[in-house]
Amino acid sequence: MAKKKITCQSFLDDLSDYIDGDVAQEIRVTFEAHLAKCPNCWVVFDETQRTVEIFQGYDCHPLPENVKGRLLQTLSVKLKNA
Ligand SMILES: [Zn+2]
Question: What is the arithmetic mean of pLDDT over 63-77?
Answer without folding.
Answer: 77
